[in-house]
Amino acid sequence: MFSDRLRLFFYCYSQGYGAGSEGAVPKRVQAIRQQPQSSQYNLLAAEFGDDVAERMTRTWDQQALWQQRVQAFVVDKERILADQSLNGVQQAAQIAELRKSRFSSQEQKRFRVFLENPNLIVIK
After folding, report:
1. Pick from 72, 95, 71: which is nearest to 83 by CA?
2. Which of 1, 31, 91, 103 could form a disulfide with 107 if both were Cys (CB 3.0 to 4.6 A apart)?
3. Distance CA 112, CA 26 (A)
């Protein structure tokens, strides 16, 4: 029996999606992702099987939680920057403390990528 990753790899390969290309994520998966959350699992399971559907929906849930945490940080950071009673040094210190309190040292590495690439942050 194929593993979930192998099944998805072979599906992508059979659909003509090459590794590293912009088409690496099948358009079908993108279309499923746009569907209501209540339908996503069933659509994925029908297309790729239950194992892949479980992993994909779990991954999407984790991504959504990460985005929420990043968005909450951005809101609080903007609040600190808007506080006229703080000077630049105080603002920087509070922002650094906020980052340390919200993200583990491992997560801060990933978080830096988000800060350096604001287009990765989905604002809703």
Report:
1. 95
2. 103
3. 28
71 contacts 51 by C-beta, under 8 angstroms: no
Helix (H), strand (E) at residue 63: helix 50-82
Closest CA to 47 of 59, 61, 64, 30: 30
pLDDT in tens, the chain (124 residues): 445 555 665 555 555 554 444 454 577 788 888 888 889 899 989 888 888 888 888 888 888 898 899 889 999 999 999 999 999 999 999 999 999 999 999 998 888 887 787 776 665 4
Q: How many separate domains does the chain show? A: 1
Domain hosting 85: range is: 4-120
Three-state DSSP class for 59? helix
CA 63 from chain center: how many Å? Answer: 3
